Amino acid sequence: MKVLLADKCGFCLGVNSAIELAKKTLAERDNVYSLGPIIHNQDVVEELARSGLKTVESVDSIDSGTVLIRSHGATARQLEQIKHKGLQMVDATCVLVKRLQKISQKLNEQGYKVVVVGDRNHPEVQAIVGFSKNVLVVGSRTDLQMLPRRGKLGVICQTTQSPQYFAEILAEVVKRGFSELKVINTLCSEAIKRQSSAVELCRKVDIMFVLGGLHSANTRKLAELCKKHNNRTFHLQNWKELDKMLLYGKNIAGVTAGASTPDRIIAEFVEKLRDFDSHGDDKV
Fold it and tell me: 219, 257 in Cβ contact below 8 A?
């Protein structure tokens, strides 16, 4: 089978930095805990677990040792808990998420009602909400009814959302009442490049595969965008999840991957896909 790989895919700098920092910390210290999965990729989480990284959901679960702050960041309360308990801390928060937290704080201090466009259940958004007072999350158009009818609004966005979605929500915000509106572009440029590359590729292929964790926001966004342009788009974590029946009769497959998907997962998928005979028996 002919396989085309997206120009931009796989680990971003923030994810790669978080993983390298985790490995370095595990090599130097005992009792290392990650406050939530360090990234949204189960293969990577399991690999680091075998090296000794323990994933917990609460600081309350940690009595001693080192706390690794995952790439999505942590709330101000969690950081205070870590300090209060006398735990060591290693911060692997993505620099763009740190920027978001600081912007949110500054807008709040300047008297703006902070509005975050994104998924309220995503840890990145929760970390932002937990860093400033009185933050409103807009995850869909129905949430817009919660916006104040007057006053100053400061609008920012979850880093992995698409520019199109951010623009659509902003257009709806503008229709509502407020005395002042300040918008700061907090989208990740690398995520945008991956989205553009994936959409361009999926238009050229018979079937499209988006590789990455099922809980990964940026990977889900890639899959959603590709699905709009090619309804034969499938979001998988790795080769083991592939139903090979999907491949029969297809000539050209496209592959892209989220920012938390390891190169080895991508390489294995592409290699086995190329070895597959979509009009007969596969060799893998």
Answer: yes
